[in-house]
Amino acid sequence: MPKRATFMPLAGIELKRSATDSLHHQLYEQLRVAILTRRLVAGTRLPSTRALAATLAVSRNTVVNAFDQLLAEGYLEGHVGRGTYVARALPDESLQVHGKAALFASPRRAHALSRRGSALATIEVSTWPDVGTPCAFRTGVPALDLFPMQLWTRLAKECWRDLPREHLAYGEPAGYPPLREAIAAYLGASRGVRCITDQVIVVSGSQQALELAARLLLDPGDRVWLEDPGYRGARGAIAAAGARLVPVPVDSEGIQIAAGISKAAHPKMVYVTPSHQSPLGVTMSLRRRLALLDWARRTGVWILEDDFDSEYRYVGRPLPALQGLDDARRVIYVGTFSKVLFPALRLGYMVVPMGLMETFTKARALIDRQPPILEQVVLARFILQDHFARHLRRMRVLYAERQSALVNALERELGDWFEITSPEAGLQLVAWLPIGVNDRQVSERAAAYKVEAAPLSAYTLSRLPRGGLALGYAAFSVPQIREGVRRLKLALRSFK
After folding, report:
1. Contact status, residue 428 vs residue 281, Cβ threshold 8 Å
2. Mean pLDDT, to the nearest integer, of 346-373?
3. pLDDT tens for residues 372-417?
4. What mean pLDDT is predicted for residues 109-127?
């Protein structure tokens, strides 16, 4: 029998000498319950009878009698010269089930979730189960097979070897200073963001940044404009803060300000993805950007800018971030490394106006204390040694090729089904279905053919005039893209 480390939940064992039950029966019953509820798992080695007796301040005979009864009933197994273990096969299956049911039972209604907890429990962040190996055409996943793993591994070894011992203690909640400095320099050069290192907070991906902004800037009942269709993660974070969601339509220039004003003239916040709208892929025009910023300055509205997929633009020069055009300091800027490196890295960033920096940093410390140090040190070195810039250049060329391959395959094989517009940026596109076709039903049918095609209606709060599918292409080779389109064609042929 494989041994386990000795584990004894002594804090849970309490023998009462004034009780009517004998001490040995109390010990027997408490050990039995611990075994049935899996506090003592199968294979756990128990302390010797002498050691346990000394710990509980009882006679050794008390422990021996309890152990003997548990051994006789099959809860424990004794092995000469090796000790006493929790049995692998428990004797009383009905009691075992009862014990597990008691352990995992739902709380009574009187002790149920808070209103905020209940709201969180109903929110779905993703439009698709996004774990495991992705199938065509899962969205939001970069080309993981082409990430420079050997280089990253070498840097990780170097950073771990060179890491000063003091960095093993608690660090700054806002993040590793050299990484924050590298992010500030990168954003200034590539995105036109105006910031200094002291305005950068490292977070556990963009979702944590959205949660922080919603928690600190919104009160229950505050109105928030959301692009419709739009990113579900932002919708969830804002709804969890108790805010009232105001869906605002999107056109070829981005969020429609006039439509938003007609629905809610005095919102507390506007959430936008101007560089590459999620999920439609349009880029907010400069005219619309300036109009939004002017309106925010006059009304005092906060703008939460999610610079979604801004690194991957395939046509022309990228427009500067909203934050870089903002003279009134109304923009909170959010970005992530999940889409450009790999999702499991769980590192993102936010740029906060200096007047809010202390508050956001304190909240960051309360939620998560600080980001993990090794990943930050490796990422800082990856950026500062220009590996990050080279990786982006390679991926930009690759993703443009994969986007073109998907568009060509769809137009060739399914031109009678879809209307496709190649987005200027990003890792996904929208294939519009004919009017009247239910995109959720098409998505379910595609899944039967092992095609992940998220329905556009899953991104919306209001009804769209026509449905569509969001199709990611970054993670898939050209042959995989063509095979995915072939399977999608089979699914649509059988669709009724």
Report:
1. yes
2. 92
3. 899 999 999 999 999 999 999 999 999 999 999 999 999 999 999 9
4. 66
Does 229 sit behind a cis peptide bond, omega within 30 degrees of 0 on the bond before it? yes
What value does the mean pLDDT of the chain take?
87
The answer to whether residues 54 and 68 belong to one domain is: yes
The answer on 223 and 188 residing in a single domain is yes
Does 6 score more than 60 pLDDT? no
Q: What is the largest CA-CA distance in the chain?
A: 86
The answer on 437 and 361 residing in a single domain is no
Please answer whether residues 335 and 206 qualify as being in contact, where contact means their C-beta atoms are separated by less than 8 angstroms: yes
Same domain, 346 and 445: no
**How many structural domains comprise the chain?**
3
417 and 363 in a common domain: no
Which residues 6+ apart lie within 8 Å of 408 measured at CB? Answer: none
Q: Are 338 and 345 in contact (CB under 8 A)?
A: yes
Give 219: exposed, middle or buried? Use CB within 10 Å, 0-12, 13-18, 19+.
Answer: exposed
166, two tokens: 């003091």
Rama region for 255: left / alpha / beta (φ>0; ψ in -120 to 50; rest): beta
Residue 271 pLDDT grade (very low, low, confident, very high; cuts 50, 70, 90): very high
The whole-angstrom separation of Cα 260 and Cα 277 is 16
| Vertex 384: Cα angle to 380 and 388 (nearest 5) | 85
State how far the Cα of 289 lies from the Cα of 282, in Å rounded to an integer: 13
For residue 11, the 8-state DSSP code is G
Under DSSP, the state recorded for 484 is H
* Same domain membership, residue 84 and residue 68: yes
Q: Which amino acid is residue 229, in one-letter code?
A: P
Contact 432, 419 (CB under 8 A): yes
Domain range holding 163?
148-385
Q: Which residues of 58-83 are buried (b: 16+ CB within 10 A; e: fewer)?
A: beeebbebbbebbeeeebbbeeeeee
Residues ≥6 apart with Cβ < 8 Å to 410: 418, 420, 431, 485
Which tens digits make up the pLDDT trace of 60-81? 999 999 998 888 888 888 877 7
